[in-house]
Each structure stands twice: as structure tokens, then as C-alpha cells.
């Protein structure tokens, strides 16, 4: 285990920590620590909502979550010698829940996934499932089970949902401009089209006064992935992965957070992963001038790690880019195609006794593969959701005696 | 090898065959043969353009292709006992190129992939690459190489790009209505938003006279995937796969065609697979009343086969839903996100001496995985393209001595 | 499909072919054809017994098989420019059963596996199963099923059981000397410890007269693997594999035969694979002086191909190097350890209603992995047999309701 | 993390711990703790030599190791309700090195592998490499590197080398009888054929006086695997694995130890794995009467876990059962065949500048697969060693420019 350069008292909020993290991307967030190329180090991480969700059987906390505080990131970390134009190499050596015995803080032996209410966060199927729900997951080594979703057990692909470097002022301006333009097309939409900078809830390490005000005024919210990396929510960003980030500011300013115990492609129920606090061990290095050398100017590239759960049997659901509620044809819309693949899977799983919400949460948390089929065959995009059949205790494949609708209880609901 | 129930003289067009196939989906296309549940049978298949593309070094044939004749399908095959509400099981036992020595017909030891001109077909990156190009690929067992794209060799995942059952009249009416509504939103667009029924070039087996006229008038073009299956272009629809199709008409009326030697997720250059004529061996069976039993009412579901090329090292490119040409933010648009991942990969491969078109064709034809990352983190969808590094003769991973821009010639161009 | 350089009329024995093959390794066997480095070519192959086994329900043909004629090989093929000290590269491009419809010759849509009688061939468990049995397997694309072993279906890893180059006279002398020395330790043993040169049944292409007599007198029998390659029976020698053979004689003299549709590690029932006649497509090349360059002086090395059936669930049986019949401890004997792992697996499978012989044949023909566990922990070697559970129609894993002993009939027996 | 039921002060020997473990298998070793079916628990484990090996550059400690104290096991654990005839289910939930920062005790951020001297332990190639050597390995998450073996990096398959239940008195008597009979065939052999019970160094938890004397007199040494499980050294016994042990005594008496960070099939250099102290999390359950129900009477069976490093490119070395030193033919001896495969691999790796000892240690510690090829083709067994090429920084495949013999230093040697 390498040296801990960012620690975390689970019983306190991020703002209360000795060295706080941050929840906005901005080039002026003060560095929490400095690392040198070649160094290995451990970072402790808060669960993304900063501890708002409890190990209980009510979804009220999900319904009422304060999203302005999210995501609480550890860092930023200044990398010695990093300059704009370089590629920052980040090796994910290891990550996991909070070490030690089961406790009340998310990551202490358990995690959760939530269906967020349409009025507060939403999710991929929020037009179909507008209310808040929650499931608690227990960790057994690399496997997870849930009292709220009986009959399944997964081997998780642990990964950080969010990791990224600081934008330059120029890049940040570009984000703010284009996202505000998008919001302006439908400013009253629920949920909103995008989240603009917001002073309320902003945290920027130990910055205060004018500096904090400046960061709060223009700092980018952490919800989306952008050119700096950010909230990729790519399930294969796991142990052994090597990421190459374009560097935009001196020192690169690397941040990380939003650890996931397991997640399916798309993280479809928004907080679709099994969320947890925990630790992540990293090693950094530099390719000087690497952006030009390798033609990597926009988004990071990465090599996935060599560890993944071995699943070889899938039942695959297909969707096309038609809104079947009113039979409207969209044009090569992979998002809609994948949404329909998910809805088809839920329809199927209900025959085995799962509720809509249980099925939705299975798709979000289990290692499903979301693949783009065809995106050129006008007018319909085609996407496919590969559901590993081996995560179910029952044999859910078609054929044989047919499904038996077992009573499987229910996920946590709101009061 | 099972009994051949649909044969194909490679030297003749589909219309000239003893028992012609068809190129429109319609419930009244006469069955070319009848099969019984449990039967195994072989179907011979024309390459999808019906033989318009040659083994040469000019892309003129791609530029000038007559798309009204496409896709030429084998079938339909009536399945004894199949009725609406059933699930039709189709096992793909085997498929491959045309047996025998190398010859002038596509599938006789070679295939092709094409970048279609924006004015005639287009493709996923047609706004970036509007002209026609072509590459010829040679088959070496399960591997492919190309004189037009030196430095790569793939193990192909052979699959039918297109397989499906006949729609009911009601379902067909729904398609025509919704697709015409889409076209009406921008009727002059190039390429068009969708392709409406078209009498020119229509073929419906041995139908003629009034029947042919009726089919031509309302029969669905075969380009998109729809509820009946159709042009899925899913690369994992390979040997050993089992598909479950909802049955919409008595006899199900199964058709198949558009065989691919290899393809990446998305089939991004439209005719992005390595196209070929060849054979496919199938076995059919029925689950009576299976649509209700399993909740499979809309799209087919399938279990992928157990054969896939073993690639374990990837370089992964990420894209987000921003149109970077003018820095416009789209809302959770997975299609745009995947397009950017593809563009990022092309930018990278050019550093190794590949031309834009060569890189584009590598992405379309090699077994890349196109995965949906996050589709809930407003406003940006995130998609990732996993490029297997082991298909390249050079080590293309970042690090080491850096890329050497080798002269790799050029793909076939137009005159 | 490349040019056929060695063809095979299935209705005739190897000796009756226009250009016969051979069944002894000797440096003077006349070349059947010449190939040049870089050339791709097809070779047709007889099933290893030269057609002695029929598609029927009696094991009499297995009991009475004339092993002196085996294995019937195609070739040898002279490689232009090959000289002693080179490494001969052989790429296995493709292989499969005899093309065309089902017929009476092994490989025409079917294959077989046999338990050979202890008095005529034997096998790995011959002390436990001394009598002759047989199962016929039907091919469905890449999958096999058997009317004699209901309840299982495998995706086969097709491979040549036997491929190799000619020995030099010096190497051949060494083989004959050391194998005769072994036989001399127990010359009356049944089955014999090794098979010395034998004039009866010897075939050496079109050699006759003195040349044939000389070859017959000292030519090595083809049963074992040796430094020239030979009867490796390695299941992963499949499509896409590249083998590097040390060259011992000018022209290398490559031969191939004994094609298998599927086999488990160890080929435990001797003729344990699913045997077939068929074709194999090869490409050859040379690394001049490669034996010294790479330190490959003794046995060939190879890179396995990229195609393998995807199985990810195994039930694993362990054996140690104790002869449990009389509780005798052997010293680090991996052979005995693997034998016990096989016996433990048979004991287990019998609980599901399989007969001893059915279970034995499943282990020989299915893609089981035979792994060496520990071979240093005195006195017991430990080996493990990984049985893919997904080849069974029933769920054979421990747990749940326990096994149900289904009546599964019987394999073919002797009269 | 579950409750710790067996803890371990790294700075003390096993005998000095508050609750000591044991190093002999005997039905009367007092239970260190009791667990109930369904319980999850953590066990801390000493490195197998009980701390005799240091993080330094001398192999003297390996040369002089006191093997009489090995292996130091944690346990035994009594399982409530377990009775002879049951199957004990053990789920390996997690395992890893000692948590915390790097320290002087093996497992604190580092491990080692050793070539043991022929006069003190030996190893698989001890006749070729009779002297003592050592390499220290550093842990980086799931990957290992070594200053003594530069140029390689592996993703480890962590596993317990040794886990097992107590034998009954009857079973223990059988072991002692048969192993003494083996020793009697060559009682002066170096290294010995087997290790009989030995009072010196015996530890049996808190037993003392007559009880300890009785255990020491007949208790089985822990080196070999036997019917109770024991020192399997199976690399795939990793996280997520489920083992089914036949129960021989009331309470089953489960013990575990000899944790490995990584190991190749065969653990060929005896202490061939990367050895470490650490922790293991287990869950136990029972199948009452399961030995008869499933026909599992002799050795345990297991289902491997779903986590394994993804390596897909191998260079494979083959060996046959000939002692090439004097060209003696052994009969179907898989041990000798695998030994030759290992020697062939060493010969190859030396061309890249590795010393004999470095190459030997790579084969022992990296995730090589040791597969049984054919064990029926008289007189030669054939085994194959699959070496993952992706663990090397250089491209070690044949072809291209050929090997460059880099100076790679040396492993730790004796004074």
C-alpha cells in the first residue's frame, strides 16, 4: 500500500476534513498535495453525495438529496513538471471500499444505488420511472448482493466514476458558453438540460474569500464528462487501467472521486452504479509534448486493465431509435435505441417476478455491456444490452419450462 | 453440411436466379421454401448490393452503386406451424464465404468495404468524408488482410448483417407512417432521413403483376433495423448465436442476407463491414405463445455464440456529445459521442502513417467494441471505442519511442 | 480457399489414392508436393484409421481396428529453401470436416470417438475400462452432439492431432534406440510400452521396392509426439495458430493428419477426440537459421490462435499421484494425478445418470482443460481437470436440489 | 470486511501469537475458533516459512531455511454442525497482502520467490539448478515487479497455496503408511521422496504435553496435497472460488495458509509462487450428506472464481517424456514432459538476456498455464507451457528483428 496523500475521516463531511477536496472544476482550485512523476500514492475518497445516503430501507434520502454538493472529489493533485501539451499518464493500481469493519458510512461494507426522482436528478428512464427508489448492496470480497434485489449476485468491476484534470480558463469558458447555449433552448425543462455554475454548495479545497467566489462563479459542475475527463462512468476504468490525459494547466491538477463497486454500461439509473466511499491507489507519469506526438488533443485515451469478471453467457436485448410510446421515429439516435433495449430487458425480467424498479436497478448496477450495433442504417440506430445470465440464481434463458414469477419483495421506497 | 434450400449462382443477379430472393419486407412476399421446426438447412446468400462491386483498385463502383436494389435477401422461408404470438428460434450454425477457389464474385476468397459518397448512401462520418472510397480484403481462413490497408490483420467475427421475419400488415403500416413523418421534417435532406417504399428495383421472389405492384408500393426498404429484426449489423450475431424473433404472420417468413466477414460495432462507414456473398446454415424451432410467456413483444432477443476472436489489449478512445466543429453541446446524444470517439481514433492512427480513409475503414471493419459509457450525466453522453491493439503489426500503444509515420499507400479512389 | 495440393477421394483408402500419403516418419519418404515460403495451400486429410470406423451403433470396428495402418498422413510437403537449422513457420488458416452433405465416410457430417480395448490400443483409463466402446458425433456448424451421449453439446476447437516434419537419419536413430530400450524393460506388456518400426502396413507415398523396404524397416511409427512435432494432440493447435518447427532435413518435409473436431486436454480415451477426415489450409514460411537465433533446438513452439469457445464456468476435479486401488504413493507423477482427476469426474457425472463410458467419452471429447497444479510438493503431484459446466443441458453444479439420475441410454458396444 | 477470527502480529512467529496456528494435519489439533454455516470471516495468515525470508539481496536465507516449521497454517476452524459425510462449502471472498504500508515482514508490500537448494527442499528443475537463489517482488495493486527480474510485470492471481480440512485417524494412518512405503524404496535420496511425521518444529495451536506429543508423532506434514485438500498450489483457487471439501471429522477443522500473490501452473521452483503473508476472507456452508449425493469421496472439487487476468497472447513451449540428458525414454510421464517444456522455455528466454535463474523464476511466478497435451500416445506424454507474451516489456515473439540480449542483472545469490 503506497503513501496516503489525501485522507478522509468517514464521519465528517468533505468541507469538515483537515484538507478538504472540491466539487467544481476550475484552474485555480488550490492543490491539495503535490506528486512527482513515477510516484505511487493512495487517495481516500468520499461517496459522491458526501454522505447523504444511509443504510436503511427508505428512499427518502435519495428523493431529497442535495445535488448541489456533488460530486465531492479528492484533490486536486499537482504533478511536478506537467505542462500544457503533455500527456499525463495515470495508472489505476488498486481501489476498493473503506477498509475495516461494516459501519454506517457508505463504503464501510456496503454501497447503494438509487433511482433518482425526475424532479431531482432524474435518470435514463425517468419518463417511465419518475419516483425515487433505493437499494442497499452488501460487499462480499469482489461480489455484491442486496436485500432489496434478491436472486442476483455480481462480481463487481470497481472503478472511479469520475477522474480528470483541471481545464484551462479558455477551455472552461468554452464549456460554460456551450452549456448555457444548450440550457437556453429550454430553460424551464425538468430535469434541466445542463447544470450551470452555482455558488451554492461550492467547495474548492481551502480556498475562501475572493478566490472561492471566483471559482464558485465560473467553476464547472462535475456531472458531465468533458474534454478533461470528468464523470466518464466507464465501467472498464478499473484496476490496471492506464489513462492518458491531455494537460491543460501547469501541474495538471488531477482529481478523483465517485468510486463505484459495480456498474453496467450507461449507468442507466443515473446513480446507477453501486456507489461507495473508499480508496484508490494511483501512479502518475508524463509524456512530455505527448498531445502532439500522439494526436490526443481532445479527450483522454486509455488502456483497460487486465482484470474483469469472466462472464460468457449473455441474453441480449435490442432497441431501435423509435419512441414507442407514440411510435415516433427518431433519426439514428443511439441514446433512444439503448433506452429501448433497457425497457425490453425490464419487460423480460418482470416475468421472473422482479418489480420494474428491481429490474431497472439490476441493469444499472450489474456488469451489463451496452454496445452500439449499427448507427448508419437510416433512420434507425440499433443498440444492444448484453445481460450476463450467470448473475442470476435462476436460469433466466428462454426455453425449458418457462419463467416462474417468484415473489421478490421490493426495493426501498419513499415515505 | 445440411441440405441447401436456397441456392445462388454467383454469376447471375438475384432476379436471374431460378428461385429469386427479395429486397422488400412485406407480409405477402411468396415463400421461397418451407422448413419445419427442428430442421437444419443451408441458405446461399448474395452480397448485399447484388454484385455491383468488383475486385479492383477503383472506387467508381462504390460511388455509382444502385442502392434501390439493396439489400438482396435470400428467402423468405415459411416455418411450419409458426403463428403470430410465437417466438421463432433461429440458431446460426455456421456461415462463411462462397466455398471454392478465388473468383471474380464478392465472397469468392475476398470481400470489400466502402466509404459511401454523401450523395449516395453516406455513412457515420459522411460530413467529414463525403467522397467514395473502397478497400478489398483477402480471406485467409478466419483472418483478413487488405492490399489497400497494409499493416493490419483481423480475425473476423462472421455474421449476417440482416436477418428478420415478415411484418404484419399492421406493423408495416406503422413503419411507413412513422418513417414518412420523419422524412417530412426535412424532405430535401442529403442523405435522406429515411427511405420510403419504392417501386423501382423492387424484387419479391417470383411475385409479379398485381402482387408485385402491391408489395413494391408499400414494402419496407431493408436498410434499417426494425421490430422484425432486419438490418441489425450486430457483430456478435455470429456462429452459435440463438435468436428469438416475435412472429407477426403465419409461417413467420424468415429472410437473411448481407453477410459480413468482419465488422466493428456501429458498422461506421455504412458499408463498413467486410461485405461478402456466401452461405449460412440455420436451424429453426418454435416457442408457441412465447411472446407473452417471455414478455418479448417488440424486438428480438438473442444469445451470442461461443466463438469470438480473443483480443485482450485495447486502446480506447472516448467521445462526448459535443459537435466540436462549432462547439455545440448536444443533449445526451450517444450517437454524437460515438462519432467523436471515432474521430479521435482516426486522429491517433494518422500518426502511424494511415490516411484518414484507411483509419476510417479500420474502425468499420475490425472487431472494435463500441460501448456506451454514461448516458445520464447531463448534458454529455460518453461513448468509447475499444480498438484491439493486437490487430496491428506495429505496437501502436502510447509510450516507448513514439509513432513512426510509415508510408502505407492509399485505399481505392474514384476516377 | 487456397489451391488444393493434396486431394483425397473419400471412398478410397490412402494407398489407393492417386498420390498416396504415408504412415511412417522417415527422411526418405518422397515428397507429395512442393510449396514455397509464403504460399497458402489446402490439404485434404483422411481420418486417422484410414476409414475403418463406421457410422453405426456397434463398437466392433473399434475393437478390431488395424492400428498398424495408423495414422494416415497427408504429405510430406517439401518447402523450397528449407535447410537444417531453420525454423519452419506453419500457419493454420482453417480446417474442418469434409465439405458437402452427410455421407458414409468419417468427416462427412459426423465423427466418432472410441474407447479402445486394452488388448488393442488401450487408453488413459484402460485398466479401469478395458473393453471397446464408441460414440458417433453429429456436426452442427462448430457444435457437436451425439445420439450415444445425450444431454451435452460442445463448441469444438478443431485442430490437427498430428503435424510434423521429417527427422534426420540421426534423430530417427535416436528415437529407435531409446524406444527399443524402453520396450526392453517389459517386452510382453499389454498394451506395449512403445511401438517399434513395423513393415506390415507401412505406406510411404509412392515409394516402393528397396526404398519402401528401407523406410518400413526403420521408419518411426506415428503414435507419439517427438522432437519433430508429431502426434501432439494439443487441443489449442487450432485455426489461427502459428507453429515454429525446427528443420532437420532439406525441404523440411511437412506432414499433417489426424484431424479432430473437438478434444479435451489429454485426449484421454486414446482416440479421445472426435475424429474426422477433412481439410486443412496452411501457409508456410521460413526463419533462416532460426533454431540458433531463438534457442529452439528440440521441440516446436507455437502461438495459439485467437479462436476458442467461450466457456467461463467450470467444475474442477482434482487428483493426486496416489494409486487409490491399492493406496500406493507414486512420486510426483502428474500422469497418475490427472488420471485420478478424470476418475473423480466420472464418479461425479454418474450421479446425473451418465454411464461410466459416456462420462469417459465426455472427458475425452469436450473442451476440458487439463492443468498441472503442483509438481513440487513431495510426494504428490496435483493435477486438475476443468470441466465446462455450460456444455450440459442440465445444471450439474453442486447445490440446489441435487442431481437427478436421468436414463441416458448407452454408447455403442461390441457384439 | 468481515470479522477477524484469527489474527496475526506480523512481528512475531506463529508460536508466539496469542492464539497460535499449526503446521501438522491431525484430527486432534485444537480448534482456534468456531464458525457457523453462512458465516463470513477474515483469517490473517503468516507467510509459509513463518518469517524466515527477508527483503534483501542475499539468498542465504533461502539456502538455510528451516523447512521443519513449514507451512505455518491459520486455524483450524471448527464448523458448527459439520459431520463426516458432509461436503463443506468454502467460498473465497477476498485475499491479499498484509494491509498497510511497506514493512520488513513478507506481505507488507512485497513478497519473494526462491529457488531452493537441492540439499534443502529442491524444486522441479533441481537437477539442473541445484543452488539457492531468490527474487524480491514489489506489489503495485494487483501487479508485481522485481528489481531482481527486470523487464516483466504481471497481474497476479492471488490464491491460498494451502487450504484443507483435518483427516480422520483412519485417513491419516493411510497417508503415513503409504508415504513411508514410498520413502522405503530409496530412503537416502536427496531430496527425499516424502516427508514423514517429525516431532521437531511441530506446532499444534495451544496443544501441549501428551496431546502435542501425539500430534507430533503422527501428524501429517503439510507439504503435499492429499485427500483433505492441503497444498494444492492451484493458481485458479482465487477470489470468488467455491470449494467443496469432503468432511472427515466432526467440525471439519478447516485450515488455510501459504498465500500467494501470483504463481504459474506447477509452482515449478518449489517456492515458485510469489509468497506473502496477508489475509483471506472466507464464507462456509454445508451440504449435509453431500459426499454420497454428489459422488465426491476422495478429493475436493471446486468452481473457479470469475476473476482472472486477461491475457490472450501466448508463446507455447512443448515437452515430451524423454530425459534428454541421456536420451532415455520414459513412459507417458507428464511430469517429465512438463519439465522439458519448462527447460525449452528457459532456453528461449535466455536469448533475450535473462539468466537461467531469472527465466526459471519467471516461469514459477507468472500466470503461465501448464496444460496436459496428450497422455495416451505411447510412449510419450506431451505437455505444454503457455507463456503470456504480454507480461514482457519487450516483444518476445519469434519473427521481426530477432532477440536482443539485454543485460538484466541477476537474482539474489548466496554468499
UniProtKB/TrEMBL annotation, chains A, B, C, D:
Keywords: Hydrolase. Transmembrane segments: none annotated. Its EC number is 3.5.1.49. InterPro entries: FmdA_AmdA, FormamaseFmdA. SUPFAM superfamilies: Acetamidase/Formamidase-like. It is an enzyme of class 3 (hydrolase). One of its GO terms (molecular function) is formamidase activity. The keyword Glycoprotein does not apply. The keyword Hydrolase applies. This is Formamidase. It comes from Nocardiopsis alba. The gene is fmdA.
Amino acid at each position: 500500500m503506497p503513501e496516503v496523500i489525501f485522507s478522509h475521516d468517514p464521519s465528517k463531511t468533505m468541507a469538515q476534513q483537515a484538507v478538504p477536496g472540491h466539487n467544481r472544476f476550475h484552474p485555480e482550485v488550490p492543490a491539495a498535495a503535490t506528486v512527482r512523476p513515477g510516484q505511487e500514492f493512495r487517495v481516500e475518497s468520499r461517496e459522491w453525495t458526501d454522505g447523504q445516503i444511509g443504510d436503511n430501507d427508505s428512499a427518502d434520502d435519495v428523493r431529497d438529496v442535495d445535488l448541489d454538493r456533488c460530486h465531492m472529489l479528492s484533490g486536486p493533485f499537482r504533478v511536478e513538471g506537467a505542462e500544457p501539451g503533455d500527456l499525463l499518464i495515470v495508472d489505476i493500481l488498486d481501489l476498493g471500499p473503506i477498509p475495516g469493519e461494516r459501519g454506517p458510512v457508505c463504503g464501510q461494507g456496503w454501497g447503494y444505488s438509487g433511482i433518482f426522482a425526475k424532479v431531482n436528478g432524474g435518470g435514463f428512464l425517468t419518463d417511465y420511472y419518475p419516483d425515487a427508489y433505493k437499494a442497499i448492496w452488501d460487499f462480499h470480497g469482489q461480489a455484491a448482493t442486496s436485500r432489496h434485489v434478491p436472486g442476483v449476485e455480481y462480481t463487481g468491476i470497481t472503478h472511479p466514476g469520475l477522474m480528470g484534470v483541471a481545464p484551462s480558463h479558455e477551455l472552461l469558458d468554452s464549456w460554460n458558453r456551450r452549456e448555457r447555449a444548450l440550457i437556453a433552448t429550454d430553460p424551464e425543462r425538468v430535469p434541466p438540460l445542463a447544470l450551470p455554475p452555482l455558488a451554492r454548495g461550492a467547495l474548492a479545497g481551502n480556498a475562501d474569500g475572493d478566490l472561492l467566489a471566483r471559482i464558485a462563479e465560473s467553476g464547472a459542475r462535475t456531472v458531465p464528462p468533458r474534454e478533461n475527463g470528468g464523470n466518464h462512468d466507464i465501467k472498464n476504468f478499473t484496476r490496471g487501467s492506464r489513462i492518458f490525459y491531455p494537460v491543460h494547466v501547469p501541474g495538471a491538477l488531477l482529481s478523483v472521486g465517485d468510486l463505484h463497486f459495480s456498474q453496467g454500461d450507461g449507468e442507466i439509473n443515473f446513480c446507477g452504479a453501486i456507489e461507495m466511499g473508499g480508496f484508490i491507489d494511483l501512479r502518475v507519469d508524463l509524456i512530455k509534448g505527448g498531445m502532439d506526438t500522439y494526436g490526443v488533443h481532445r479527450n483522454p485515451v486509455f488502456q483497460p486493465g487486465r482484470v474483469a469478471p469472466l462472464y460468457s453467457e449473455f441474453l441480449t436485448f435490442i432497441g431501435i431509435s423509435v419512441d414507442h410510446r407514440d411510435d415516433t421515429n427518431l433519426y439514428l439516435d443511439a441514446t433512444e435505441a439503448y433506452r429501448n433495449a433497457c425497457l425490453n430487458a425490464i419487460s423480460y425480467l418482470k416475468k421472473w417476478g422482479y418489480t420494474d424498479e428491481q429490474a431497472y436497478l439490476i441493469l444499472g448496477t450489474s456488469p451489463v455491456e451496452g454496445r452500439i450495433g449499427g448507427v448508419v442504417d437510416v433512420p434507425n440506430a440499433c443498440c444492444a444490452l448484453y445481460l450476463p445470465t450467470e448473475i442470476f440464481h435462476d436460469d433466466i434463458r428462454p426455453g425449458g419450462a418457462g419463467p416462474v414469477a417468484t415473489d421478490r419483495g421490493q426495493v426501498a421506497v419513499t415515505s
